[in-house]
Amino acid sequence: MANKRDYYEVLGVDKKASAEEIKSAYRKLALKWHPDRWVNGSDAEKKTAEDNFKEAAEAYSILSDPDKRAKYDQYGFAAEQMGGGAGGFDFGGMDINDFLRNIFGGSFGFDFGGFGGGFSGFGGGADSGTRVVRGRDIRTSVKLTLEEIASGCVKEVSIERARPCPDCGGKGARSESDIKTCPTCGGQGRVRQQTRGLFGGMGYTIGTCPQCQGEGKIVSNPCRRCNGTGLERRREMVRVRIPAGVEDGMQITIRGEGHSAPHGGVNGDLLVVVNEVAHPQLQRDGNNLFYTRIISVMDAMLGCEVSVPCLDGSYKVKVEPGTQSGTVVKLRGKGLPSVQGYGRGTGDLYVKFQVWVPHKLSRQEKEMLESMRNSSSFTPDLTREDKNTFDKVKNIF
Questions:
Q1: Phi, psi (deg, nearest 5) at residue 190
Q2: pLDDT, tens digit, 9 for 90 and up, residues 324-383
Q3: Which pTM does this prediction carry?
Q4: Cα 34 from chain centroid?
Q5: Which residues contact 20 (CB under 8 A, 6 or more apart)?
Q6: What is the rounded distance in angstroms from the CA atom of residue 155 to the CA atom of residue 143?
Q7: What is the spatial distance between Cα 11 and Cα 29, in angstroms, rounded to a whole number?
Q8: What tens digit of pLDDT does each residue of 54-68 get?
Q9: Backbone torsions φ then ψ of 340, nearest 5 degrees
Q10: Contact 305, 315 (CB under 8 A)
Q11: Residue 136 to residue 275: CA distance in whole angstroms
């Protein structure tokens, strides 16, 4: 997961791209990197084409699905851990050629039935419009207690990030007149060259413009404060809203709070990873909480009332007379809520009673217990009720 590229970056589209723009971007990448186009390439080229093709297919499988895209937008790759499916790509048993036909239909004159026909209709023009530069993402972490996770909270995180230069307003130039359209690419940010394809037809290669580095503009009189970059680094505080029910390792994506892009591009994102602080008394398993309470033999035999810690305060729990060691009592709804969109309801709190048996007794206490040893009340007799209790303990732990 750490080596994965952002899915929008893979397809080369903006976070606000429409479904049609996402599909169009994938079509171009699928045609460019399909392994059958690289059959005559070197082993390294074949491996690169295969990896790039799979990466584009995975990105499209997530961003083309509205539900998966929404979960990925909010939680990034952590949505996979929460059952969101925002990670991993599977054709679901579909043949790769059938999958591509669904994307391309019969257009482009491309034969997917064996790839014998070449790319007879392929070779469209370069992307229209100026390329939008995107700022880099920032990854940080935040520590959360179970109490904060239970109710959700707002945390402030300190980050250092690139922000627009105050002198030039992020333009990188002293005035608007100092910013010119790149003569090499005509403001496109990309240049195209016609080449002979691997299958005999004519094709095109599209790359970043070497003069403007993909920005589409040239600064003739750069700002002195930022040296033409349009950016300067600042340490700032960002308020992050944490939804209730998050788990350790989950990632929350704050759109547009990453590094600013040069010359008015699109900001990157802030990726906040949750670090859950261990609770001193409660243990977590999903949405459920577990607590172990040690009681004396006398309390177990005679019954009592004990105080149990919960995330919203302490609760009184009745210990029934004759409680066996290992007995578990469930406090319904006293666990953690599910993260919105990733489950329903609230978990429970399980209280396990462990009976402490004294190992140092006075002479008088020993004599008293000896007198009761052979009493029928102290001789094990597993009635149906007692047997059910032990069976439950065995099944739970």
A1: -135, 150
A2: 999 999 999 999 998 865 556 889 999 999 999 888 888 888 888 888 877 767 766 666
A3: 0.57
A4: 28
A5: none
A6: 9
A7: 8
A8: 888 889 989 988 888
A9: -55, 125
A10: no
A11: 23
